[in-house]
Design goal:
This protein is α+β, with helices and mostly antiparallel strands. The protein is built from two helices and ten strands; from the N terminus they run ααββββββββββ. The protein has a domain of 136 residues: Allene oxide cyclase-like (AOC barrel-like, Beta Barrel). It is 16% helix and 42% strand.
């Protein structure tokens, strides 16, 4: 009888040890990784990458419009422009029209929304955060995102495109800027031509 009881106790201990080991192995084997590799085509439906060339005109207007396209915040501190977020030469937030042609009356196809901040103590140079928000055609509802350095007095400028949304997901590329018109006598009104080259799916 004692042998039978000892055998039963040993068997119980073995079962308990097996269950404990199994629980421990399941706990330690579970993968808590926060990322994994995916197939872009199977998971997201992404096909071959393509290069698109949007071309439009960016309009800076102040007195000629019933509503301002930018808002002022505060002037710079130790230098007249540096660090300021006051609209235009010192910076500010914008919502500017982008049109198909150089005339302000031509078809509006998107808006430029973002922030300009003066970041040079010696020249008129801005750091910009912009979103080109498309409002027409097949790209309606999509956007391109820009973050970069803008020396506004240079004839030719370039800004990097680092992302997008909608049909421009995974976008990358650059925008070439050339001043089409600048009138410093009317509140620094200007028209800037944009040639954009963007890779996306």
């Amino acid at each position: 009888m004692a042998k039978s009881h000892q055998k039963y106790t040993t068997l119980t201990l073995l079962i308990l040890l097996t269950i404990s080991s199994l629980i421990l192995s399941l706990t330690t084997a579970y993968d808590y990784t926060f990322s994994r590799s995916l197939s872009p085509k199977k998971k997201l439906g992404l096909k071959q990458e393509k290069l698109t060339h949007p071309h439009f005109y960016f309009h800076v207007r102040h007195r000629q419009r019933p509503k301002p396209y930018g808002c002022r915040s505060r002037p710079g501190t130790n230098f007249e422009r540096f660090g300021g977020t006051e609209f235009r030469l010192r910076g500010g937030s914008i919502d500017d029209p982008l049109t198909a042609g150089p005339e302000l009356t031509s078809k509006k196809i998107r808006s430029a929304q973002g922030i300009f901040v003066s970041t040079s103590q010696s020249d008129i140079e801005l750091s910009v955060v912009l979103n080109y928000v498309f409002t027409e055609g097949k790209y309606n509802g999509s956007s391109l995102s820009i973050l970069g350095h803008k020396p506004i007095l240079n004839t030719d400028r370039e800004l990097p495109i680092f992302g997008g949304s909608g049909l421009f997901r995974f976008a990358r590329g650059y925008a070439q800027l050339r001043t089409y018109m600048f009138n410093p006598t009317i509140s620094n009104d200007a028209t800037v031509e944009y040639n954009v080259y963007v890779w996306h799916y």
